[in-house]
Specification:
There is one protein chain. This protein is an all-alpha fold and 88 residues long. The protein has a single domain (5-83), classed as de novo design (two linked rop proteins) (Up-down Bundle), CATH 1.20.1440.50. 67% of the residues lie in helices and 0% in strands. The chain contains 4 helices and no strands. It has helices at 5-20, 27-41, 47-62, 72-83.
Length: 88
């Protein structure tokens, strides 16, 4: 079953919203999540470029030592989802 790239972005934004609304997540990580959410929603860039930027930022933040244990798998899952967006 193939999932449309727009559906992938929509589900990623939902996960980002969960991170943004979690008060146990440090502010710096929530700021990055907000930046990624804005980037994914910015239709002035191609979807692949937006996904690539998001993956890069997720990779940077995934190594933050202050990341709560329950957030790290969400970050990894987001990166995996964004990697599914095809190059066009």
């Amino acid at each position: 079953m193939t999932v449309e790239p727009d559906e992938i972005v929509k589900s990623c934004v939902e996960v980002l919203d969960r991170i943004l609304n979690d008060d146990s997540v440090p502010r710096n990580i929530r700021r990055v999540a907000e930046t990624i959410k804005r980037t994914l929603s910015d239709e002035s860039e191609s979807l692949f470029v937006r996904a690539s930027i998001g993956i890069s930022k997720l990779d940077e933040v995934s190594n933050d030592p202050n990341m709560p244990l329950h957030t790290r798998p969400l970050i990894w899952g987001l990166a995996s989802q964004l990697e599914r967006i095809p190059v066009k």
